[in-house]
Structure formats: C-alpha cells, structure tokens
Design brief:
Blueprint: H1 2-52, H2 58-68, H3 75-82, H4 86-98, E1 102-105, E2 109-112, H5 117-121
Antiparallel strand pairs: 1-2
Helix pairs in contact: 2-4, 3-4
C-alpha cells in the first residue's frame, strides 16, 4: 500500500510540474503576441509609407493611387496604403476635390477625373 501512495505522490508532483510549465509557456506566448501587435501598430505607418509613397509628396502619392484605381478608393484604404493619419488624408482629398482633380462617387469612394492632370493644371501641387 505504501508504494501505491508513493507512486500517486510522484504522479501528482509530475502533473503539478507540467501544469506550471504549461501555464508559464502560455503566459509567455500571450506576452509575445501583445508585443508583436504593439510593434506592428507602431511601425505600420512608416513601413506602408516607404512602400507606397517613396520620394513623392503626399498629395501626389494620393493622386497617383486614385488615378491607378479602376473603381475608386475610399479614405480608409488610402490611409492604409499611404500610412498617413486620417486628418492628412482628408485634407489632401479636400484639396484635390477643390481643384477638380478627383470626384466623389456614391458610397464615399474617390475616383480620378483627368489622367495626368495634376502636373499640368495645378502648379502648386507639382511633385518636388
């Protein structure tokens, strides 16, 4: 009978050790995921800007994206593509709409009016 109790105690100790290891590894994995999400949020705008708008002004970049889209682009997609904040995207869209370079379609989608008109018609918006 004594050996049965000793065996049960050893199994309990192994089980407890396994549970502690499992809990700690799960906690560590959760912390790693949180750190990964913070890093993605912090650097996503910089990475997206470098890919989409390398060596371009913000207005020119947004205009090119809208001109190359067939169905038009919504402001949320522009924000993701360029990495600009919401306010900057809306100011650029307002400026382009005011100068007649883009139009607003149904559903808040922006599409181009003229092909390549930004360089010719609006001297203040030229790429530097």
């Amino acid at each position: 009978m004594r050996t049965g109790h000793e065996l049960h105690d050893r199994n309990s100790q192994l089980f407890n050790l396994f549970n502690k290891i499992h809990i700690r590894s799960t906690t560590l994995a959760e912390k790693a995921i949180r750190v990964q999400n913070v890093v993605k949020k912090r650097f996503a705008a910089q990475l997206a800007t470098k890919k989409t708008c390398a060596n371009m002004s913000g207005t020119f970049c947004v205009m090119k994206i809208i001109q190359h889209s067939k169905k038009g682009v919504d402001p949320k997609s522009l924000k993701q593509m360029t990495g600009f904040n919401r306010q900057k995207v809306h100011k650029i869209l307002y400026k382009l709409f005011k100068h007649g370079e883009i139009r607003i379609d149904s559903g808040g989608v922006y599409s181009g009016v003229k092909e390549g008109g930004i360089e010719k018609n609006v001297p203040s918006l030229r790429q530097s």
